[in-house]
Amino acid sequence: MSSCISAVGIANPKNRIAQSAILGFMRKAFRLNENDANRLKSIYDHCGINQRYSVIPDFGFDDFAENEFFPANEDLEPFPDTKKRMGFYRKQAIEVAAQAAQNCLSAFDASFTGKISHLITVSCTGMYAPGIDIDLIEKLGLNRNTERICINFMGCYGSVNALKTADHICQANPEAKVLVVSVELCTLHFQKENTLENWVANSLFSDGAAAAIIENTDKRSINKPHLILKNFYAEYIYEARNEMNWLISNSGFEMKLTSQVSKQIQKHIKPLAEKALQKAGLLLQEIDLFAIHPGGKKILEAAENGLGICKCKNSFAHEVLAEYGNMSSATILFVLQKILAEKTDQLAQNILSFAFGPGLTVESMVLQKQSV
User: Fold this and answer.
1) Are 250 and 79 within 8 A, CB to CB?
2) How many angstroms separate the Cα of 56 from the Cα of each of 15, 45, 169, 174, 177?
3) 51-54 and 15-18: which strand pairing?
4) The CATH fold of domain 226-370
5) DSSP letter, residue 205
6) pLDDT digits (tens, 9 = 90+) for 131-177
7) Where do the domains of the chain lie?
């Protein structure tokens, strides 16, 4: 008995901002001299991102006087505190999350909504209670006795844990229909302190939401391409625990991301892949596609080098990075959505997927795309 991802839906806030415009905002916000401005431009030129999305329009404005969320002055003071950011999250997250869920559910007939038995929400960029899980049930018209699970503050690998949890549910109850919704408003947590870590973090992160339906493979509700969840495997590299942090401060959440993260991924990913594949009864050469979390261009290159694979086998991750940036936990579902939507003559394709986060944690899953 197996479970599968039957459909994936994605959504983003309305503010689509070119990476070049965000660079202009950051140069002014960090008050960079000419030398540092050129260094920052080099980071943006080589990040592999063309555009990003944000619930905050300010990042695309030429003049701070136009600001709508941040104070309209050169100092951006008083700098928004965590309370203001969480209040904005509460208003904005539900809209983009619901849109992703509705886009996912549009693959099914109208009666399917009433069959959803479980809702799993994922986010590491905001929280409140009663939370987005209850707001989604009301907004989508789900049954009020829908079982709810919230996966919070796990970072970019949170959606893999959600899929793993959904798989456990479907294995235990073949009639279950599980809706997973990940929503991340990373740009709410912009930090203006002039550090290299903030330069890098503010060059990568974006806002978005993704939703997926997981159900028993033999009891699928639609006859369309689907992704069978074969198995999961995770390890954390405790020695690298200080290389990636996600901490709550008085001015939002602060990301620490050092250059050692990509080096640690390159060093450890192949032995972890071998363990994941052994559980699935597969060899690395039997993998047709890779779905690696687009944490950044360096992350993707480190993973590909560590695995000894070409960029072409991980092309969907590079496409998502270029089109959307890093949307934390939602991003891997964007990659899987592209894989599901891609037309292919192959009846079955083996997929190896990875996501990374604080720990330093490496989560992996083996999937198989069935075209019918």
Assistant:
1) no
2) 7, 23, 37, 42, 34
3) antiparallel
4) Peroxisomal Thiolase; Chain A, domain 1 (3.40.47)
5) B
6) 999 999 999 999 999 999 999 999 999 999 999 999 999 999 999 99
7) 226-370
